[in-house]
Amino acid sequence: YRFVDEYEGETLNKPSSIRVSKPLTLGALARFIARVWGLREILELNFEDGLEGRLAFFNATSADYPELDAALCSLAEGWYDEDHSAE
């Protein structure tokens, strides 16, 4: 698996590719994308107080993983809950 962006990889955390012997589970793929893209940090910096803004920031599609967007949204919701649970 390899993650690329429109900035020739300059905005990605390294490494941005992995080799696996079996297809990734949906959760593993979502975590890989989130790590490589720095999704949690991007969302926290740009949408500090709003879950709706965070969820509207991205839209993930995949023919092989039709629930990818829902999995990434679930991660984002969990991070938001963690960040705001002490408030």
Structure description:
The protein has helices at 26-37, 39-46, 51-56, 68-84. The chain is an all-alpha fold and 87 residues long. Helix 1 (26-37) crosses helix 4. The longest helix is centred in the C-terminal third of the chain and has 17 residues, at 68-84. The protein is globular.
Compile the SSE list and pairings.
Elements: H1 26-37, H2 39-46, H3 51-56, H4 68-84
Helix pairs in contact: 1-4
Quick recap:
Helices cover 49% and strands 0% of the residues. By secondary structure, it is mostly helical.
Structural class: mainly alpha
What is the typical, i.e. mean, pLDDT? Answer: 91
The overall strand count is 0
Shape: globular
Give the proportion of residues in helices: 40-55%
Order of helices and strands: HHHH
The proportion of strand residues reads under 5%
CA distance, first residue to last residue: 38 Å
Count of discrete alpha- or pi-helical segments spanning 4 or more residues: 4
Low-confidence stretches: none
Largest sheet: none
Q: Which radius of gyration do the C-alpha atoms yield?
A: 13 Å
Question: Which terms would index this structure?
Answer:
single chain, 87 residues, mainly alpha, 49% helix, 0% strand
